[in-house]
């Protein structure tokens, strides 16, 4: 792949990802009722080692954790090549996020990694897998 | 203080810790003057116990003597029998402290934790915050002192330490301040009971327990014939604390408790009941000396439905029965029977306080397929063996085989974590920092590399290994690894590895480099039946401030402890994350990996053998348990723990 191609793809990928990630933390910090809609139906979540499967169960699980306030300090993102993204409808991204979170009043550093796919029918991006873990 | 402990070294250790805390607190003028430096300053207790409530005096004794003068003459409570007892106790403490070497055996050393401005937060809020974070948290005699600081005692040094770890980490939303705490080793405001006393007390307590009704009747305790000639009143802190210890130890499932006719005027000690049992529905406190409803409020949190308070002075406080009832309901909203009269409870059903509990922090999650774990672990082991090689420039090129020739990608980010107050720790050594930051693909810092994207995004195996080879030499600490497998499909797997590493030229050359944190996410596809190929590799690194490193380690220990705790009920227990995705295009030409289905027979036999060893069950029972859990060893272990009580004895070897 030429470096021009890489630049072009990366620019678009970063724009898409930033939007999604901003939305995600806004929803989890302030509009948890919408959480379930952000995960694909068969999505999986591993939250501090606790596994939850299915968008509905994930929405319920995350809604029930104590209040959060995230502060993201680092976001990295990659878009899968069309070949690698084929099983996910042709467009998928992976993101690695780091930052701090105040949860139920206590401050932790965390990292979170997500696999995002775009539903080819609705054109909506959904989280397919999500892994969250405290650093301390 | 000398010679109080048999192990003198321990005393010294504690002393030096005390000193350390003192130094830490010295910046804070609000903290220091209120505390007695218990091991340096010769205590000159001029204890003038005048009309002080037992609480105040305990507080004074616990905190030291400096605030004592201020207190004299300020109390309003009557001079009760308890005061005399406390007076007596304070003399014991004086003796214990003054005697150099000849220390009384009945002195108990405990840790007093103080919370700055604790009165503003409220005791129950503090206790709830700490209780949800500190394992087996049992604060003794929690109260708010004259300086508006909250204080309580804990017996265990380790627990005191883990409470201190939370200092400055818990935020109070309303005031937007962090809880500041400090601890002090002090003489407990209660005496140690002799072994013979303990035995006698236990015998009496045990005989007063009705197992069928799950009821403990401690009415007129000191009048018990077996206790005549002894001073075993429940008004003595040490007796009451022992009773509660016994309940905690043996009768945690207690549903009815009578403390009738025990001359109790304070429920400070009794409030420990909150930590000993959670099921008390019937509570008889009648015919005591309780003057204020505030005392009863110290038991708030128990699911009491039937309560007896008659015969206490507090009842005279109320002229209208509706006021009395509403005061009781404020404390115990589920009460449907007050002093023998049926009343309408204001709360029924599930306690709303039960929701919003944070799920436990658990160790690595591999899903329920042992082959997946094996495959990924083997892969990572080989990967880091090469990655950590002595000569990164040469060695890491060997990793080309691990990445997909064209479709793979690698990016990295370096961003140092900051703490709650926004400060971060510098990344050392600088040359490593620069090597990483030149590559950092952090979208939050996009303005710094917007025009140089292609330098930071590496596509294809060859380009990736060239980039990896330029990164600093590293050494990863495998003991610190946590691995989460977050996605397993027939064509892709995603997993995330986090842990500690060292980097830079100092690695392995005798220097002690700083430990850093990393989190690396891999998305892999099966190359063939037994090997994987990386599609995506994302690396995040950060410096770790030494106190944060300590917390990281504590968290790992906690995870190990939580490994066997049963899963929260609403989550599906360990289900494989197989995803059904509608395919609009044919899947990539990558071989299918046999990651579904059961393990082979040989593996099964080994699992049965190990399970039998660990559970103590016979092999056929072990096999059944594993089979019922779809050959998920961990799940089978959890099921076993849950069902152990119902498994017949002949199932065991």
TrEMBL record, chain A:
Localization per Swiss-Prot or TrEMBL: Cytoplasm; Nucleus
PROSITE patterns to which the protein is assigned, alphabetical: NTF2_DOMAIN
Coiled coil: none
Main localisation: cytoplasm
Protein keywords: Cytoplasm, Nucleus, Protein transport, Transport
Residue ranges constituting the NTF2 domain according to the UniProt record: 16-134
Pfam families noted in UniProt: NTF2 (PF02136)
GO cellular component: a single term: nucleus
Protein role: Has a role in nuclear-cytoplasmic transport of proteins and mRNAs.
Annotated GO biological process: mRNA transport; nucleocytoplasmic transport; protein transport
Protein name: NTF2-related export protein
UniProtKB/TrEMBL annotation, chain B:
Ranges where the record places region Disordered: 59-87
Record-level GO BP terms: poly(A)+ mRNA export from nucleus
Domain TAP-C per the UniProt entry, residue ranges: 602-653
Keywords of the record: Leucine-rich repeat, mRNA transport, Nucleus, Repeat, Transport
Pfam (any one): LRR_NXF1-5
Compartments where found: Nucleus
A single GO molecular function term of this UniProt record: RNA binding
Domain (NTF2) ranges: 375-541
Sections of the chain in a coiled coil: none
GO cellular component: cytoplasm; nucleus
Compositional bias per record (Gly residues), positions renumbered to this chain: 62-76
Subcellular location, principal: nucleus
PANTHER family in the record: NUCLEAR RNA EXPORT FACTOR, NUCLEAR RNA EXPORT FACTOR 1
Family: Belongs to the NXF family.
Protein name, entry field: Nuclear RNA export factor 1
UniProt source species: Mesorhabditis belari
